[in-house]
Each structure stands twice: as C-alpha cells, then as structure tokens.
Amino acid sequence: MAILDLNDKAKVQAFQDFVRKDPRGQVTQDPLWGDLKSNWGHVYVYHETAGKIDAAMAILTVEAVPGKLLGYSPRGPIADVDNIDLIKDLIQEALQALPDNVFLIRMDPEVEYSDHLNEAYQKAGFVTRNRQIKNMHGNIQPRKNMVLFYDGRGEDAEVITDEDSLMKHFKRDYRNQIRRAAKDGVEVTSGDSEEDVRAFYDTYVMMAHSQGITYRPIEYFLRMQELWQGTGYFKVFLAHFDGKVIAAGIGFSYGDKIWYMYAGSDREYSKHYAPYAIQWKMTNWGLSLGKTRYDFGGVGDFSSDDGLYKFKHGFTYHDPHVEYIGELDWVLDEVAYEEYLKQFK
C-alpha cells in the first residue's frame, strides 16, 4: 500500500494506465480529474501485487462544513470492493497523507447494490446511503443508471456486433428518429479541439436555460479539453444542421465503458431529432472500441414518469436496470458528518 508520488512520472503513468484500462476504470479516478477539480485537494493511494497495481483510490478534498474537509473518492475505489479489509487499508493509508481536519471519507464505487454487500459494509463500520435515499440528488452521484450492454445480457437481447445489431437494439421509434435525422441532413462530427468544446457549450447553455437548471462555466470544459486532448479517452460529438450546431454530447472512454457525461441541444430544431443522431454516433464509438457498456448516466427512477428515464430507456430497451451500491461513508467526525448531511435532506 502506498501514496502516489506525483513527481514519479513512471508510477503516475502506471496508476493512470490502471484506472484507464482496468475494466472497472473510471475517469474520475484519474489524476487528471484532480487537475480538473483545481479547487479540491487530492491524494492517490494504490496497492500492488508482484509489482503491479491492482487497486487504486483517488481522494479529493474540499471544505464541506466550516473548518472541516470532505474526502471524496468519486466512483472509487477501483478495486475488489468485496474485499472490505483491502478497502479499509486503502483508507487508512490515505489518512496518513490527508489533513487532520478530514471528517469523512466517502466512496461510491460503480458496483451493483446487493443486500449482502450493503450489510457487510455496515458490519465493518461504514454508514451506507442507498435505498433509504429517495431523491436522486440525495446522493452526490445518481445510484440508478441506464446502461446499454453490448454483450446482450438483457432479456431478449442479442450480442451487439455491428451497426445493424446496434440499431435493432433500440426501440423501434428511436430507430425511426435516428433515420429521420439523417434524412433531414443532420450530420455528426467528433473531435477534441477547443473549437469543438465551444460549439458544445453553446448548446449546453441553451438546454440549461430551457430546463431552468444550473450549468458549469465554459472554463471548466476548456480545462477538460486541455487536459485530455490527444489522449483518445475524451470526445466531443456535434450534430450539424444547415450550417449550425444544434445538439452535442461529451463522452469519456475508460475501462469497459463509454460514459455519456454532458449534453446540450437547441430545442428550436427538435423536429430533426439531433440528440438521437448524437447517441447513434456515440454508441457506435463504444462498439468500435469493443466496450462492454455504454453508460447513459443517472435517472431519478426507473419509471416513465421520470423525464430522464423516458429518453434513455428507448436506447436501453432490452437492458437490465442498473442500481449501484451508493455511498459508503467512513465517518471520522460524527458532529461534522451530521451537519454535512443536512444539505441532502
């Protein structure tokens, strides 16, 4: 068990290779994510077997209650989460390098919920936050995700091997909308340039305004582009119509999946179904890379009453719903922890 020395280029590369290429890999565990979150502190811990990294945990810190730091491992650790002794050892190693005023180490690994795992973590001294949380925003990351599985694991699903089988995987009206977008002249490009990011951002802001939700400043996305440009792990997809970008999406390729992370669209052109054309190209990206999963991201509930679910379900029509274990909290200061939780109630 060791703390990653960020001045050791070879070890940083080994850490990055692990969190990028391990099937469980997550962009949020890459040290570049810590660079993106420039107002957060960061500590990276890893475990080796026979000289090779086989477990990694990135912990980012930020003041979450006055004078106290939250230590958050977003979608981490990348490890055998069933091995709770290993997870506790990772935490204890990290605590040697973290500031003394950290009140909580929070993990939310991308591992499916089970009563057995939930109870095992509780018995080991963790506070678990999952099924008792009813609001989608009651957790930092959504627990319920819509995921397309290329390996055909869903009911009546077939293994997706080419564009034809991918198209057949979607709901019929979604297939029609993808074809309608192409017939109308919608064309989708992809890239990782600053120009691509700026074009994405215009549609992202339009969508946020139309839905009355907050949005990140453009500097966040420009920094993202600067950090990941040329790596092949980051792409911006742009739907063009009549010389104008009318929809966009940002995706990351880590581990065995594509993560559809951000989106935008111009509602004025909704009849051309550009967001469907974006998804067609992005899911094809995953297919071309031999991925197992395409993660459409979270929903409030697996119900047609949920707007996010309604859109994503048509692409994941044959796929099982995915419910993650949620937050696994190692509490160091009970008073600060209770204060912190007030914002999620």
Automatic annotation (TrEMBL):
> Where does the source fall among the domains of life?
Bacteria
Which keywords are on file for this protein?
Answer: Acyltransferase, Cell shape, Cell wall biogenesis/degradation, Peptidoglycan synthesis, Transferase
Spell out the InterPro entries in the cross-references. Acyl_CoA_acyltransferase (IPR016181), FEMABX (IPR003447), PG_Glycine_Bridge_Synth (IPR050644)
Supply the Gene3D superfamilies for this chain: 3.40.630.30
Known EC number? 2.3.2.10, 2.3.2.16
- An example Pfam family from this entry, by short name, is FemAB
Has UniProt tagged this entry with the keyword Transferase? yes
Give the GO molecular function terms.
Answer: UDP-N-acetylmuramoylpentapeptide-lysine N6-alanyltransferase activity
What the record says about family reads: Belongs to the FemABX family.
- The protein depicted here goes by the name Lipid II:glycine glycyltransferase (Peptidoglycan interpeptide bridge formation enzyme) (FmhB)
